[in-house]
Design goal:
The complex is a heterotrimer of chains A (174), B (254) and C (471).
Chain A: E1 4-11, H1 14-26, E2 34-38, H2 44-47, H3 56-77, H4 94-121, E3 140-147, H5 151-161, E4 165-168
Helix pairs in contact in A: 1-5, 3-4
Chain B: H1 12-19, E1 23-28, H2 37-45, H3 52-60, E2 65-68, E3 71-72, E4 79-80, E5 84-87, E6 105-107, E7 114-116, H4 126-129, E8 137-138, H5 150-153, E9 171-172, H6 178-190, H7 203-207, E10 213-217, H8 224-229, E11 234-236, E12 247-250
Chain C: H1 3-16, H2 25-37, H3 41-68, H4 83-107, H5 117-138, H6 164-184, H7 187-197, H8 200-210, H9 217-250, H10 262-288, H11 292-295, H12 298-329, H13 332-343, H14 347-365, H15 368-371, H16 374-401, H17 417-438, H18 444-453, E1 454-459, E2 462-467
Antiparallel strand pairs in C: 1-2
The chains are: A alpha+beta (174), B alpha+beta (254), C mainly alpha (471).
């Protein structure tokens, strides 16, 4: 019976971290079983990692569409409920409607972009997580899930690649 | 050759057609003596607040009609020109209406006048800024609260029960004495007839000793007000703005 | 170039540019944390004085005005709008700087923006709060202001979408919400940093705000995409907000207001006062907060100074455009109005506006050495803000004095507007002071990202600076 373990290796630089990712793959660890946590944004190609899927742009477009629908409804449908004529102007004129539709579209888009980050990243998340505080000092950490049999092998490899520390990662309150 | 539809391009013919209101007024500046009787009568009829000397001097008088005085030349060589009674022109295309965010000033489809909805007004004062005639007055304080001014208490019995007393923070303006219009219409309806020309009039017209103010139906070409307004020396104030005012001024006649 | 010369050249560049002078991230984190933790007695003295101002100027005076009516303010016929609207336009103008710096400079990848984007964005949010206060103060019956919002109600009555004020309300709401979100997104990694570095109540405070951010690939990717969308989308929102503010005036049937150039003229005016305020705030932050001399350097004042000069020229261009067209038209009321501006009792303000907005900025900012001097360019920023406040004062109460009904012409004299204005100013500074001790004012991760991207490169015999595109 093999036990699942989580290892957290902390690297000072980007280069050795990227090398370690490659070595891990050679040791038979699938990309799904490792992740990189960093204090600065690095792109997936820099680490040689697969493309990261994000729904944020799609959610933003969806929000924009809803916002636009709200804008159109406010401009052309809402005034009908209580018809009032003002200043000899047409009842529901188009030029002011463009302003309302624009503002509502942008509001819908930006609100949903913000919401998208929350949904995609599972924010807010106050459960215990695998983490070491040094990461926010600009370090790169690789979190590996492996069987306990591979533990020493992986630890040695990481050390060899220049990891500052390799530790049993225990989920903790941040 | 293609002809251009003048109605389509908003030429004057189209404007005149649209200008057809219901109620209107003619003010003859040639016979106005500037006696201010209309101002007083309006204040009594419409429960207009007494704002006091200081506020009045600072531009906060609340009269719905005022007598504007102008002169020509430099002191002491001054020559008075005509008195100009100024009140809400009940514009057909009122600039005050579209700018209110709360729909507190709207156009009455039935009476074709410009309404101020007191209990909807939140006091942005945009309408007053946008009124080219500057005839809207704002309740800067609770002028009718006798807790703030004891002298007001004695005036309370003078209030006209047909007209709302306004509180601080809202806009108000001339209504063409809409309470009188409604009263006359109700009476005529109960007697099964139409309102006759001259059967009733506004407070200002009623009080004018020189009969310089005439009120009535402008959509009836036979009414007194329509006949007076048709005279060649009738003018609309700031007509060039396209506000379609319902008040015609007679000035410079024989 | 000899080796020694080259070495000196590199050293000089390093001293000048933050991006070429990297420190270990841990050290930068500690510096930013220290700047938040350090408060002298002077900080608290100013803090309490400002609190007193807010209590008296904002809350007491406003409460009194709500109870007694606008009679205790200076508004009258014909100046139905007074300093309240001046302040609203002024604060919305201030708020434009944050978006300009962090969105436009981000989109155009101007690297010098990195250390002070947050300091500018904070001004956006806090400025808009003051604008909100000012516009609600102005209302006659503020307790009914919810009628202006489009919400379903039993009366089935919606706000009037014909009214520029309704557009304004929608635009300002959109802008306030989106600029606050745009402030918060890049702040999350810094809040996580602060969480990792603090103890006690601060730990809990940052723990809640950081939302459990660790810096996984997914989190960074979502954040990067979102920030990119925000940076592009908030620019048209920003332009729309001040354009709509200008339409509050331009839509009116009034001499002097009815002008089609008001939109861009107001936008550039907003940027003018906003940049002036940013440079002033940066000067104060650099001068009073610990470790800020490392992050905010003369190069940043130089960079903003150039923008200020450009914007000042733009403002002059639009002002002249507006003036010339009004003057040439020869309308009798407009002629009266222009004469009133220049030769009326408030003529001094009109000339001061031109001196503060054009003459002084042009005289000072053309010189690289002068515009790199924090106190000097900060002073110019302060004067620009006076100039821009005067501009709005001229457009609102002074222009309202002249209308097409000369019988009503009367000058406006401010009353309780003065304590209320001081109250909003004090509240802005107070919020900013509190924020400077509660959230990391420097986006450390963005600074580190920039420092990683910069390096020296030999180009022939000369050492030059290169920037790699990491995003």
């Amino acid at each position: 019976m093999t036990e699942q373990k989580s290892l957290l290796a902390v690297f000072h630089d980007l280069e050795p971290a990227a090398d370690a990712v490659e070595q891990l793959r050679r040791l038979g660890i699938h990309d799904d079983h490792m992740s990189v946590i960093s204090g600065v944004p690095v792109t997936e190609p820099m680490l040689g990692r697969p493309h990261q899927w994000t729904n944020v742009p799609r959610i933003a477009m969806g929000g924009a569409a809803i916002g636009m629908a709200v804008g159109i409804a406010l401009s052309f449908w809402a005034p009908n409920m209580y018809a009032i004529r003002v200043g000899g102007q047409p009842f529901a004129p188009v030029p002011p409607a463009i302003i309302v539709i624009f503002e509502m579209t942008m509001l819908g888009m930006l609100l949903s972009t913000f919401l998208g980050v929350f949904l995609d990243s599972f924010f807010p998340n106050y459960r215990p997580l695998h983490y070491v505080p040094e990461i926010s000092d600009g370090k790169f950490a690789i979190l590996v899930e492996c069987s306990s049999m591979d533990e020493t092998k992986i630890t040695d490899m990481m050390k060899k690649m220049g990891a500052e520390s390799v530790q049993d990662a225990e989920a903790q309150h941040l | 050759m293609t002809t251009i539809d003048l109605n389509l391009v908003g030429a004057k013919g189209a404007l005149v057609e649209e200008a057809e209101g219901k109620w209107g007024m003619v003010i003859d500046q040639d016979i106005c003596t500037g006696c201010q009787a209309c101002v007083v009568a309006c204040a009594m009829e419409n429960n207009i607040a007494f704002v006091g000397e200081e506020d009045s001097g600072y531009g906060r008088s609340m009269h719905w009609i005022r007598i504007e005085r102008f002169w020509e030349g430099e002191y002491p060589e001054v020559k008075m020109t005509h008195y100009q009674p100024m009140l809400c022109q009940q514009c057909g295309k009122a600039p005050c209406e579209p700018v209110c965010p709360a729909f507190a000033t709207v156009h009455s489809q039935a009476e074709k006048v410009n309404l101020q909805v007191y209990n909807r007004c939140v006091g942005t004062r945009y309408c007053a800024n946008n009124c080219p005639y500057q005839v809207r007055s704002f309740n800067w304080r609770d002028y009718n609260d006798d807790r703030l001014d004891e002298a007001i208490a004695s005036l309370k019995n003078h209030f006209n029960p047909d007209v709302t007393v306004r509180r601080r923070g809202i806009m108000e303006k001339c209504t063409f004495c809409i309470q009188r219009i409604h009263k006359a219409q109700d009476k005529a309806k109960s007697e099964g007839r139409a309102v006759a020309d001259g059967e009733f009039t506004t407070a200002c017209a009623q009080a004018c000793p020189a009969d310089a103010i005439v009120f009535g139906r402008v959509d009836d070409p036979e009414s007194l007000v329509s006949q007076l307004a048709r005279q060649s020396h009738g003018v609309h104030h700031l007509e060039e703005l396209g506000t379609l005012p319902r008040v015609t001024y007679l000035v410079g006649g024989q | 170039m000899s080796e020694k010369q080259q070495h000196d050249h590199e050293k000089h560049l390093r001293e000048e540019h933050l991006m070429l002078d990297p420190l270990p991230r841990g050290q930068m984190n500690d510096m930013v944390m220290e700047s938040m933790h350090t408060t002298s007695w002077k900080f608290w003295a100013v803090f309490f004085i400002l609190s007193a101002f807010v209590a008296w100027g904002l809350f007491y005076s406003w409460g009194k005005m709500i109870l007694e009516g606008l009679g205790i303010a200076g508004v009258n016929r014909p100046s139905y709008w007074g300093i309240f609207l001046v302040n609203t336009v002024f604060w919305i103008g201030i708020s434009h700087a944050g978006t300009f710096i962090s969105a436009i400079l981000r989109v155009f990848k101007a690297e010098f923006r990195r250390p002070f984007t947050r300091a500018a964005e904070l001004m956006t949010t806090f400025g808009l709060v003051q604008a909100g206060f000012s516009i609600f103060m102005h209302m006659g019956r503020v307790w009914l202001s919810y009628w202006l919002f489009p919400y379903p109600n039993q009366r089935e009555l919606w706000p009037n979408f014909h009214s520029p004020l309704t557009w304004d309300l929608l635009a300002i709401t959109t802008y306030l919400l989106s600029s606050t979100m745009y402030l918060f997104l890049p702040l999350i990694p810094d809040l996580a940093m602060a969480r990792d570095k603090s103890t006690g109540w601060r730990k809990n405070f940052y723990k809640v705000l950081a939302l459990g951010f660790r810096g996984t690939e997914g989190e960074w990717t979502h954040l990067r995409h979102a920030m990119n969308i925000f940076a592009w989308a908030i620019i048209p929102v920003m332009f729309s907000v001040h354009t709509i503010v200008s339409w509050d005036f331009a839509m009116a049937t009034r001499p002097g207001w009815s002008s089609s150039i008001f939109g861009p003229y107001f936008v550039i005016g907003a940027l003018h006062s906003g940049m002036g305020a940013v440079v002033l705030v940066l000067g104060v932050v650099r001068g009073t907060m610990k470790n800020m001399k490392y992050f905010i350097r003369p190069e940043h004042f130089d960079g903003i100074g150039k923008l200020m000069l450009m914007i000042s020229m733009g403002w002059g261009y639009f002002f002249f455009n507006d003036y010339l067209v009004q003057w040439y038209g020869g309308d009798k009321w407009t002629k009266q109005l222009l004469h009133w501006h220049e030769a009326g009792p408030m003529g001094w303000m009109w000339f001061a506006m031109l001196i503060f907005n054009v003459v002084i900025p042009w005289a000072v900012l053309w010189n690289r050495k002068w515009r790199s001097t924090p106190w000097l360019v900060g002073t110019v920023g302060l004067l620009i803000n006076f100039g821009m406040w005067f501009e709005r004062y001229i457009i609102i109460p002074i222009s309202l004095t002249i209308n097409r009904a000369p019988f009503t012409w009367r000058l406006y004299k401010p009353g309780i507007e003065i304590p209320l204005s001081l109250g909003t100013l004090a509240f802005f500074i107070l919020l900013y002071m509190a924020a400077s001790r509660l959230i990391p004012l420097i986006p450390v991760w963005e600074v580190q990202e920039g420092q990683m991207a910069h390096e020296f490169k030999k180009f022939g015999r000369e050492t030059v600076v290169t920037v790699s595109e990491l995003e």
